[in-house]
């Protein structure tokens, strides 16, 4: 039973150790993510499940681990186990593991390819909901909105990216899984919006339930749109 949801972006610059000169620019995003994670576990949960885009569809356990070495610092992260498991390198899992470092409940993760179809994502979400049974589970869903604007001149207007980002922002602000289901995978791919697949997994997991939403942050401080939100059942 999904009892709480948090959606966070996945820039490595969320880590102050990696942000250096950009630390101040990302400070509001960092604070919003910390607030969202606190909200995620405010209602008691038995487990937090991370959903993120990855190189392949896979499941990850508490003993799996990773490092930010490819992003400039040897910063190890894990899901609370003894690091005896497999190594993950997907940015969604690396950032999520860091955000959840102080969460005192078991943590697991699921990755889906960013290219997964809507039907594949929804089916993954339905399996997550079915597997949760009656246990109270919190979902931390990782992903960025449009990144295509980062390829243009800083601050350049991109009407297509703005329209896509506005639809996602409104979906999260309204607690509307149906609006996430309606996102176009081809359009998301063209905009490098890697959050689309995890967001549609979320939509599959939540079915038609109504949600009370709080949008903690929406902005593009690094020419990529970052959204932070939390949902709770009405």
Order of helices and strands: EHHEEEEHEHEHHHHEE
Q: What profile does the largest beta sheet have? A: 7 strands, mixed
What's the Cα radius of gyration? 16 Å
Total helical elements: 8
* Terminal Cα span: 14 Å
CATH superfamily, by name, is LigB-like
Mean pLDDT: 92
Tell me what portion of residues adopts beta-strand conformation.
15-25%
CATH topology: the name is Protocatechuate 4,5-dioxygenase, Chain B
Low-confidence stretches: none
What form results from the Cα inertia axes? globular
CATH class: Alpha Beta
- How many individual domains? 1
Helix content: 25-40%
Please tell me the CATH architecture by its name. 3-Layer(aba) Sandwich
Question: How many individual β-strands?
Answer: 9
Query: In terms of structural class, how would the helical and strand content be classed?
Result: alpha/beta
> What is the topology, as strand order, of the major beta sheet?
3-6-2-7-1-9-8
Summary of the model, kept short:
This protein has 234 residues and is of the alpha/beta class.
Blueprint of the fold:
Blueprint: E1 2-8, H1 16-19, H2 23-40, E2 47-54, E3 58-60, E4 65-67, E5 76-78, H3 91-99, E6 107-113, H4 118-132, E7 137-142, H5 159-174, H6 177-181, H7 185-190, H8 196-206, E8 211-219, E9 226-233
Parallel strand pairs: 1-7, 2-6, 2-7
Antiparallel strand pairs: 1-9, 3-6, 4-5, 8-9
């Amino acid at each position: 039973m999904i009892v709480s949801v948090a959606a966070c972006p996945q820039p490595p610059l969320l880590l102050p150790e990696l942000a250096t000169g950009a630390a101040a620019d990302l400070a509001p995003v960092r604070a919003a993510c910390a607030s969202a994670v606190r909200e995620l576990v405010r209602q008691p949960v038995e487990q937090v499940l991370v959903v993120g885009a990855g190189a392949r569809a896979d499941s990850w356990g508490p003993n799996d681990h990773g490092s930010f070495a490819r992003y400039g610092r040897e910063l190890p992260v894990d899901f609370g186990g003894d690091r005896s498991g497999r190594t993950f390198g997907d940015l969604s899992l690396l950032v999520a593991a860091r955000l959840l470092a102080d969460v005192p409940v078991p943590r697991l993760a699921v990755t889906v390819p960013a290219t997964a179809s809507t039907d594949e994502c929804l089916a993954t979400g339905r399996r997550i909901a079915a597997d949760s049974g009656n246990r109270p589970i919190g979902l931390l869903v990782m992903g960025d909105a449009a990144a295509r604007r980062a390829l243009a001149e800083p601050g350049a207007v991109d009407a297509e990216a703005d329209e896509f980002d506005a639809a996602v922002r409104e979906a999260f602000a309204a607690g509307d899984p149906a609006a996430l289901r309606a996102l176009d995978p081809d359009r998301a791919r063209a905009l490098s919006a890697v959050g689309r697949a995890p967001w549609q997994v979320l939509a599959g997991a939540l079915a038609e339930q109504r949600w009370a939403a709080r949008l903690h942050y929406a902005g593009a401080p690094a020419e990529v749109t970052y959204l932070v939100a939390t949902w709770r059942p009405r």
